[in-house]
Design goal:
The structure holds two protein chains of two kinds. In chain A, 75% of the residues lie in helices and 1% in strands. Chain A is mostly helical. By secondary structure, chain B is an all-alpha fold. Chain B has twelve helices and two strands. Chain B starts with 5 loop residues before the first helix and ends in a 7-residue tail after the last helix. Classes of the chains: A mainly alpha, B mainly alpha. At the A-B interface, helix 1, helix 4, helix 5, helix 6 and helix 7 of A face helix 1, helix 3, helix 4, helix 5 and helix 6 of B.
């Protein structure tokens, strides 16, 4: 009745755009990563390098440091967001006055441009202006200076990320919680399960797909955080908060080291995929072994 | 189950809302004060609104251009993405296409990739490959609009999927039996029924495009710079003019706040990326 060709015609523009601006760059970056290519170097032409760029990467202290810092940042931020997001989602499941209003407020940070988020937190923490350093000093005599102390800078980027992205986790888990059937909970109550047991054996297994998708989305986002951190710390002090995206962007662009930058981009991409795959295998597969469904 | 204590729960949500809103409120305070007033202990109350920060930003021709670019890029992108995604999703939902589940999944992988991995190849493509004579895609609004499709199209398709699949296909079938053409089915049946979903998709797409910074900063230099790049320039160029920076940031986040108020009811399905069927 209806021909397939019309369907393909409808899909064609979308596929074309995704191909030209999504697949082509990916192929391009893969090819370049096997070449030495630096347009500012003495020899600005492309020379085949084989795995040279990748070999160099393994010994690049700056890159490895950035990778490690990014991972630390991602784990701290995402774990806190999942816990906090779950608690808020559970609280939003209850009925209370002005619920819609409070939910809107708690969604707000999500809509703000990352650059503006960075600006906001810079204004909160900049010495001589921001309330955080002022009151920490006044009340506790604690010196708060993210342009000097590595730990404080790291912590501030994590707190900023939590502030910005917890709403996403809350919304994801809230959607999952509200679509859950009631029967298992009633059954658990009849069977005399206490709160901890209900959470561990009923809520958690049913919530797992939602938690997993929240972890994946957030982890992938955290691995590519650039804008906020760039605005907040500029990657400093030193290179302490120069997370991987920032590292690739700030270190490679001024140097125009295209081949090396490509290899770095690809490795980051693969590491993100591998990380998500490992998480998936660890969290889902093990569960399936224990309790086949 | 615990007893309902409305007073306690309201108190909790008030405190939690304060924590959430405080950084934005503080930015607003800074934006409404002159340089001199900002010295000394933090003051959380505005006595006089120092409008010069806003006026200076709004009357700056460079900033006006950035703002204009942002509006054009976000609006065109949202319109383009919503239209293309409507057709693509309709095709994927209603036609028996070979490998359509793979296409669905493939579209979303486009969104997963860290942009840092694409900055470099895109920069090279824009400056050296997508070039016709003197014209290059680099530093054009068109370049940004097309590029933003890469992460907005998958989002729109995944959000609209649920919307279109919720429209019973019997409606289409009945229309086809009555002799309707495909465009008539889409125009008279799908479009009216999918309108709320399309609106939410369009608005969120708009906000994503408006908020984007990294690509805009890398793939433009002078003519096509957007408001987010302008805000970032503030920090690096002017350094410590905090009042004006705060005013610029406030201007950047106003559309987001307005749109949030518009779509807040539908936002759960939209922002969670269709990951959870709510």
């Amino acid at each position: 009745m209806r021909s397939q060709s019309v369907g393909w015609l409808f899909l064609a523009p979308t596929l074309l755009i995704l191909f030209v601006f999504g697949v082509w760059p990916f192929v391009y970056v893969t090819v370049i990563s096997f070449f030495h290519w630096n347009s500012f170097a003495a020899d600005p032409t492309m020379r085949f390098a084989g795995l040279g760029n990748y070999r160099e990467l393994v010994f690049d202290k700056g890159f490895l440091m950035a990778l490690w810092n990014t991972l630390k940042f991602g784990v701290f931020a995402v774990v806190s967001q999942i816990i906090l997001g779950y608690l808020l989602a559970q609280l939003f499941m209850k009925d209370f006055p002005f619920k819609g209003f409070f939910r809107t407020i708690h969604t707000l940070p999500l809509m703000i441009a990352p650059v503006a988020v960075g600006a906001t937190w810079r204004l909160m923490t900049v010495p001589g202006l921001g309330p955080i350093p002022y009151y920490l000093d006044k009340w506790f005599g604690y010196e708060f200076l993210i342009s000097r102390y590595v730990g404080q800078a790291f912590l501030t980027t994590v707190v900023m990320d939590i502030w910005h992205w917890t709403p996403l986790v809350t919304l994801t888990l809230l959607a999952a919680l509200s679509s859950m059937p009631k029967e298992p909970f009633e059954q658990a109550q009849i069977d005399g399960a206490n709160r901890v047991q209900t959470f561990w054996y009923v809520t958690l297994p049913m919530l797992k797909p939602a938690i997993l998708s929240a972890v994946f989305i957030r982890l992938m986002d955290a691995m590519r955080t650039v804008d906020e951190v760039w605005m907040l710390t500029g990657g400093g002090p030193g290179a302490a908060t120069r997370y991987i995206g920032l590292y690739i962007w700030r270190v490679v662009f001024p140097k125009t080291d295209y081949g090396y930058g490509s290899a770095m981009s690809l490795i980051t991409l693969y590491l993100t995929i591998v990380l998500c795959w490992l998480l998936y295998a660890g969290l889902v597969a093990r569960r399936d072994l224990r309790k086949p469904e | 189950m615990t007893r309902n204590r409305p007073f306690l729960s309201i108190l909790f949500w008030l405190v939690s809302s304060l924590v959430t809103l405080f950084p934005i409120y503080w930015m607003f305070i800074v934006s409404a004060k002159s340089r001199v007033e900002l010295f000394g202990a933090p003051n959380f109350i505005i006595k006089t609104f120092f409008s010069e920060n806003y006026i200076k930003t709004l009357t700056d021709p460079t900033f006006q251009k950035y703002m204009f670019n942002s509006i054009v890029v976000a609006t065109t992108n949202a319109a383009l993405v919503t239209t293309l995604a409507l057709f693509a999703t309709y095709a994927l939902a209603r036609y028996k296409l070979t490998g359509k589940e793979n296409i669905f999944f493939w579209t979303i992988t486009n969104r997963m990739a860290p942009p840092a991995a694409f900055l470099l190849p895109l920069f090279l493509l824009y400056t050296q490959v997508f070039v016709v004579g003197d014209w290059k895609l680099f530093d054009t609004r068109t370049g940004l609009i097309l590029l933003y499709c890469v992460f907005n199209l998958p989002f729109a398709i995944w959000t609209l999927r649920g919307v279109i699949e919720a429209i019973p296909s019997e409606l289409d079938e009945a229309a086809y039996v009555d002799g309707a053409k495909t465009w008539q089915v889409i125009w008279y049946i799908i479009l009216p029924l999918a309108k709320p979903g399309l609106a939410v998709t369009g608005i969120l797409t708009w906000v994503f495009a408006w908020n984007e910074y990294l690509f805009a900063a890398t793939l433009t230099s002078v003519h096509a710079r957007t408001i987010t790049t302008g805000l970032a320039e503030f920090v690096t160029v002017t350094g410590t003019n905090w009042g004006q920076m705060a005013a610029t940031a406030m201007l950047t986040l106003i559309p987001a706040i307005v749109f949030l108020a518009l779509v807040q009811k539908h936002i759960v399905a939209g922002l969670t990326f269709g990951a959870v069927k709510g």
